[in-house]
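Q: Give me the 3D complex with 2-acetamido-2-deoxy-beta-D-glucopyranose.
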Amino acid sequence: MLLSITLAGLLFLALPSCQLSIPWPESNLRGDANPQPPRLLKFKPDGTFHISIFEDLHFGENAWDSWGPQQDINSVTVINNVLDTEPLTGLVVLNGDLITGENTFRENSTRYIDQMVAPMVERGLNWASTYGNHDSDYNISRFAILAREQRWRNARTTSMVPNKDAGVSNYFLPVYGTDCVSEISCTPELILWFFDSRGGFAYQQKDERTGQRVGQPDWVDASVVDWFRQTNAMLVNQAGRFIPSLAFVHIPTNASLALQYSGVDANRQPGINDDVPIAQQGQGWCPDGRNDGACSYGGQDVPFMHAITTTPGLMALFSGHDHGNTWCYKWDRLVPGMTIKGNGINLCFGQHSGYGGYGSWIRGARQVVVSQEKLKDWVVDTYIRLESGASVGAVTLNSTYGKDSYPATPNDRTRCSTCIYGRR
Ligand SMILES: *[C@@H]1O[C@H](CO)[C@@H](O)[C@H](O)[C@H]1NC(C)=O
Ligand SMILES: *[C@@H]1O[C@H](CO)[C@@H](O)[C@H](O)[C@H]1NC(C)=O
Ligand SMILES: *[C@@H]1O[C@H](CO)[C@@H](O)[C@H](O)[C@H]1NC(C)=O
Ligand SMILES: *[C@@H]1O[C@H](CO)[C@@H](O)[C@H](O)[C@H]1NC(C)=O
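A: Here is the predicted complex, encoded as structure tokens.
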């Protein structure tokens, strides 16, 4: 049944008919004066497609102190500076923890989206989000964030897995060749997968017994893994070949932890490696589904890890969540203790982009440069563009990544110069 649905049909179904393209009047954004984002994601005529990943922006902290709103102003500056330095960006990815939900007020908790997306709206850029554990809390829901994002035609964030317990930001976006005029007649050159690793707390719910907020599972749901496998099989079937792909998820899997334990080398996996051990999917849960603090890790990300290591063409998975880690690791072996063997997929962190959220590592955004030429060998290039304008950690995710030697990444710090934190 699923296999008979065409890709165009799937894409059509994925666009809610209630999607508003014009911002509400009270918005401070001049929607109609802004350049239009391209309708199709396409490679540029030179055969490249460039993605800028912002993660852990953590807008909306402490609205009652002056430093909270000041942090957000500085985070917008980070986005503007990076996008000014990276004018070839074809898609912006917001890879989770857009908003620090536990600090927000119910009546306006998603409004921070307006401020966050202004740099993209002003430039006529498309963006696509995954949601993180801080994007769900007593006063904020992922569904409401999606609705707020979709008021702009630039938003490509959507929700393709209807199971309401499976999270919201589960979807894919096709990227077409430069000559493509309609998705009905073109085969995608690249697929971008977005997965919701959930976490945080349920909206407007308190545990009747304890009065505490209700925790949500913090891994990619098994129903999403099923959807991914079926949808990918359909895409491969239609294309008649494996399609190169990249994936985005906020919380990394246990494989990143296991690889970190096996050693992160400053030259072979260049990047900051300060969050040791990393926090991973399934953290804080027991294998039997309890999350009462009794267990450190429940293994619920095994189906997802299995899926990403058995999907031909999936070159890399990009995560955030651990603000102090910025490396890429090629998972190409059975790491001791694990049951799942890596197939060579690259697991990458980005760079903490926001002035909200923990840590003072210099803010920046991971850049991914895909070229049709290198895709023939399933290879992509990536580096981190810092708010200072410098670039660090440039690597080629090819077959020898992990063996090649690169310059080590400096571990610089920045501070919010307009924030008065007092005793913090
Ligand atoms: C949300 O409401 C709070 C409390 O009234 C206010 O301090 C804050 O500035 C508001 N945030 C936004 C983004 O409007
Ligand atoms: C949620 O929002 C309400 C309404 O603005 C506010 O009174 C309350 O303090 C917030 N709750 C939490 C847990 O932040
Ligand atoms: C998770 O990683 C730890 C640390 O390397 C490892 O001991 C364990 O076997 C892994 N578990 C799974 C299910 O991947
Ligand atoms: C992978 O890329 C690096 C950096 O450009 C290069 O030195 C290395 O030779 C490449 N490996 C292969 C197999 O092409």
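A quick observation: The pocket of 2-acetamido-2-deoxy-beta-D-glucopyranose (ligand 1) is lined by residues 63, 105, 108, 111-112 (CB under 6 Å).
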